[in-house]
Predict the structure.
Amino acid sequence: MAGRVASGSRKGFVRALPLLAPAYLWLTVAIFLPLSAMAFFSFMTELPMSGRAWSFTLQNYIAFFTTGVYGTLLWSSLRLGLDVTFWCALIGFPAAYVLAKIIKGRSREAIFLLVILPFWSNGLVRVFSWTMVLREGGILDTALNAVLPFRVSIDLMYSYPAIIIGLVHSYVPYMVLTCYLTLQAIDDALIEAARSLGASRLTVLRRLVIPLSMPGLVAGAVLIFVPVVGSFMEPRILGGRAGTFYGTVIEDQFVAVFNWPLGAALSFVLLAVVLVILALASPVLRRGN
């Protein structure tokens, strides 16, 4: 019996190979080839295209451990990722619940359009639009002074809250969409049964809805945390001096300093840290799923 199952699995794989080959070929070219090149650069003293003599070295990785500022910036980036993930969950989960369980028909389609609207605009334009809202004398400042009987001065530019706002705007759709898929899969009869047995709305949310929607929350958290830790555009534009994080330092190595070996080494250190965090959290993630 086991032999027949294995033979059937092999035949199924052979039949599916023509369909799988393009995707795996693309993944190999688009992911592993650039990563291999970056790994090669990270062990070099100079780039071959610079025209200077180069050799292999571990100094680029040693620099991370001997230069305290890199560790400090990495911790700041991890904290930024946690903060953005928290606010995305706080905003995105209720929105997903309303979309999945309360709003129906064309109204849901209209709200979905608003949710995915950030994906349709250029990221750079999206970030610069926040500079017109958050600066002193900007849209937010002008609107509040037009409504309030006293004058206020709102200037959030070049601050940590401005970075959080820009990143949450960019990534909260991921949380809404992943949570919506899991919330929609929850049978309404379960919620109605819990309510009929006397459970309050808060109890239903805490004991039923949130545990069953945990896979969506976990997926959204991973999709948000990983790119936010290495983000550089929003911190650079909205944070100014306060926006110096690990990702901005890596960008500087590639763009400003042209020290690609060090930038590649710092990138792989970040990749290793993220993988370790995901590995440590994998038991929790499995329980959530």
User: Anything to note?
Assistant: The domain at 67-288 is CATH 1.10.3720.10 (MetI-like fold). The chain has 13 helices and no strands. The radius of gyration is 24 Å. Residues 192 and 204 are 9 Å apart (CA to CA).
